[in-house]
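Entry 14. Ran structure prediction on the chain below.
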Amino acid sequence: MTRTRFAPSLTGHLHIGNLRSALFAYLLAKHDEGEFILRIEDTNSSKILISPEELINVLLNTFQLTYDEGPKKERDSTEYIQSKRLDIYKSYAEKLLKKGEAYYCFCDKKTLNAKRMKASEEKQNFLYEDPCRIIGIEEAKNRVLAGESYTIRQKMPRSGQISFHDLVYGDITFDNSTLEDQILIKSDGFPTYNFANVIDDALMDITHVTRGCEYLSSMPKYLLLYEALNFPRPEFVHLPLIKNKEKGNLTKTNKDDDLIDLLKQGFLPSAILNYIALLGWNPRTNQEFFTLQELINEFDISKITKRPCCYDIKKLEWFNKHYISKMNDQEYINFTRPYLENVYNLKDKTEEWINNLLLLFKKHLHFGSEIALVSNLFFREIIVLDETCISYLRSDELIPSILKTFKEEIETCSDWNLQNIEELLKRVELKTNSTKEKTYRSIRIVVTGLNYGRELSKILFLLEQQTIIKRVENSIGMY
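Output, structure tokens:
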């Protein structure tokens, strides 16, 4: 049975890369009718920024990537939070010590950092030759009993090569001579990321490990641990890098792709999942929009690309706009109204007015909170025109007549409804002997401050007569 896992650390914000790793692992397992496991890596306690509960809530409830095993879904009393598995890691480190494949290291971090810095300044590769490697086991144990600070390191081979086959990148070989003895247990008693991962994946029967290709350079360390511990290797699926259009590779500190923030802005989980599924996976069809079940059905490792892919917020907005437009009207109103209420006081507005305002932008909204931006013109008394708008108003001698006639028509309109507004606009066009384009654009500019936008008659209906008259009067003198 295919068993995959998502094993995030808690040391950064939840970002697009996290979710893609979870999604691809989930799709791989579910396509093969296998199992998807969630494991929490919290051994770097000093740098934890998010809680396991928050991560699980986002993963499970928001994106519906339901895991089969994990926290609160334990199998045979298995712990899925690494900080609760410390005794397991220590026991395996002790096995390697007994076999002579690991050793106690008493070198202090300050000395090591100084040597690394010196090598960097001299532009030399740094490979630490650990003097503790040759200390006898009895002497080392005595120093440990005496209270001396230590780490446990694995003895890496000094010659030869090690190879593996990646299901995306193919056969890859590494020279052992480039490897530094890796730390297994840190001085605080916690395991390193590599050591804990290998043990957990083996004990949890993980068959396929999916992760970003930035981990390819660490593969020799993983492979040598599998050998030393006599664990069978899983299949490896390394995913292509996700690059930010402006800032290079996505990182834990670059919050442009923060999932929590995207959700708060009003990006829909279905749109986010659909978009990131295509970051490094090509269905090889013209289909762009997928439900989660469709992704499960179509997912195939052979369709994962090797080349880096670009995270483009504009492309995500395009996907989100599609999903928003497909909502029924009531769903859309329920979705967007809180974003409007968070910014504007709607107490003096009727339900009909609010609903009409929201629906005016349904086919054009890129994300939920954008409604407060695009509807700003309905909550301001004065419209400030930019140079482009002013320039247009001054470009034709007919425009003052259009605006004057428009103001007169509004002042004499006794029944303010959509049909009357549309007829009013036609009369302005006929009375001034103007074109529809010129009439509508001139009016739109002085009323909204924009050269283009939604249906003019609907905008005028929502703004109401006195507001429009005031804006036209304020524009006098600009042309």
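The chain has a mean pLDDT of 91. Will compare against last week's run tomorrow.
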